[in-house]
């Protein structure tokens, strides 16, 4: 009976985590004021692989990140042009590993910059470095990302999460885009909750861990 209870509790956790992990293509994108994407630049000239990791080329990271930045920011039609520049610093793509406890995790480290086209100037002094996590989903919880997901799937998820992180950072600086501060704060809080839900693994209830 105890084993049945453990699996029932685990099943509930997986169902709830599936509901929480919304499809990024169906998200309601926040207001971005006068923002309109001009250049979308991704560079990976000094990328570092952090073992243990599957292999990925700089060109592959450039392609997937460029695509996800375009997907997230390309629909905005504000009155002012901005450039987003991303440098890929490091990555680890989880290889097949020991299920659950010892399964390695995927991570992407990027540095982001935003430029105002009219001013021909960067809107901040230093690049914003971000640590982006793949997170767990029902299909990866028991076996691990390296077993269930392909290398390409891991990269796309990390790239989508990176685009969210970039937008969250931008919303935290609403004066760059003439966004109402209260509205930007509310949108940033909602997006931060989405980022946390998608990048953090679900927690087992005590009865499922026994």
Please characterize this protein's 3D structure.
- The chain is an alpha/beta fold and 210 residues long.
- The chain is 41% helix and 20% strand.
- It is built from seven helices and six strands.
- The longest helix has 21 residues.
- It is globular.
- The two termini are 13 Å apart.
- The N terminus and C terminus are likely disordered.
Summarize the structure.
The protein is an alpha/beta fold and 210 residues long. The chain is 41% helix and 20% strand.
Uncertain stretches of 5 or more adjacent residues: 1-22, 204-210
End-to-end Cα distance: 13 Å
Q: Strand count, sense and closure of the main sheet?
A: 6 strands, mixed
Mean pLDDT: 84
Strand content: 15-25%
Structural class: alpha/beta
SSE string? HEEHEEEEHHHHH
Helix content: 40-55%
